[in-house]
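Before a colleague's protein record goes any further, I have to sign it off. Thanks in advance; the entry in question is below:
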Amino acid sequence: MHLLLLLLVTMTTMTSTSRVLELSDRFLDIRKDGIWLIKFYAPWCGHCKKLEPIYAHVAQALSSTPVRVARVDCTRFPSVAKEFKVDGYPTVMFVKPTTTHTYTGDRTASEMISYAKRMMGPAVREWQGEELDETSLVYQGERRGQWWEAFERVANQNQHSVTFFVRDAGIGGGGMEITLHHTPSEDTPPLKFHQDSSSSEDLTVSLLNFLTRNKFPKFLKATRNNFQELLATKKLIVMGVVEEDKLGNLNHEQAEFLRFFEQFVKSEEGDFESHQFCYTPTPSIANSIAMTTLPLPSILVINSTTYTHFILSSEINSSSLHAFLEQIHQSELTPLGGSSLWTRLYRSYYELTTNLGLMFSGNPVLTTILFGLPFGFLSLICYSVFCGGSVEEEGDGEEDHEKED
């Protein structure tokens, strides 16, 4: 019966190039049957069209898993969009019988496949000591008590971004502990969680804060999708700014800079524990923070607590970068930016003018029409309101003179 209903609900588009199911509003009747990865889209949305081949590749890769990959046209079935509180396109959600989660990662096939495989299993998995291939939080000990309950709560909240494992105390020896593992494991030893409080609620909050602060490796790629999570670490964000071309490649100078920057992070291991190092291939992220167009490559340091920032203006090398970070640590440099009203207003102005410039450079004719026509109509209205009366008065004056003559 469920299979028949599924066939009625889906108008399958499983051609040679796609295994994506097309859902109708009848999906609401069987949403609790199985697990789903669903893309909510609109046919007119350019971002949706750009995601389409990537999503088809995701469906192909997940065809042998229990995850059903599907999509919903929200213009035809608005009731489905309303049920899942969709407010933008495209929106990708992982739907389980009792929970739903909105995907916020990079819109690449590898990231979405990894996300779906992580979400389709239980929040906490068994670990027998095998090699870990992604950031993982491992619980070792008895599966009861406050520590275990706190671990399960945090796992249910963060399954989308971190893999959670449980390991019996007898396998590895030792007592109860929670450790955070990054990859590759040989470069970064696991971090051990410490908690003295006996309160279950405090323990959960403390473990969540520990994970939030430390879940990223020492050096990573910063994107629009993970940048807010980077700020949530409450560390100093040391960002290398480069720009990739359409094929994802860097020019020689920027590639050399990135190799230097990564090597610097490895060589300074342990010296800057309160720093999170990263690089972004999207300069607009850094430019929006700095409220100016940064030269490439650049070093930008962001205080994730005060939202101030610092820009390395001298030549970039190991000694200048080390001295720059030390000066920030010693509060010897004047911070820029912040969260004051004036700064927020100026940032809004900068982003507005930047976006208008990008629109004009991308399509000058359409941008001119888009803003020129309303401005022209507004000019005519203003002219008729403020100048029309004076024209009539001049005309009346001329008629009076003619009568006198």
